[in-house]
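fyi for ur records
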Amino acid sequence: MRFNLFFILLAACTLTFTACQQGSQTPTDMAQVKTEIQALENAWASALSTKNLDALMAMYADDAVSMPDNEPMLVGKDAIRKNQELEFAGTPDGMTYAFEVLDVYGDGNTVTETGKATYKDAAGKVTGTGKYIAVWKKQGDKYLCVQEIYN
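which gave:
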């Protein structure tokens, strides 16, 4: 009987401790996260528009995975860099990009973003639109892209 009472007491203490731990966590302010991700997307658009490969690559995790439209999956920063070099070589000068974050989901450390893209030529005429999903992970004090798919 004493043995059962011990385990009942242990279980009650464990449940109480767990409940207190879960209740003490501050919820993530997803509106703030969305603002942070939009700032990253603005920097991403700037890097693409100016063909700044180093700035663009600084936003990817080393083991990032990119899934571009109608192309093989790119695994790792080196593969993404090589693909982006080819894309920059084929992009007309003056082309600009804009990204709009539609929504973000996650816990603040790992965030999934949905968004849409707009591409314009040097004259400012819209030449294309697209959609994407990106997964960001907080590494240190900043988010890095770990996975993306776009078309």
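Residues 1-23 have pLDDT under 50 and may be disordered. thats all i got for now
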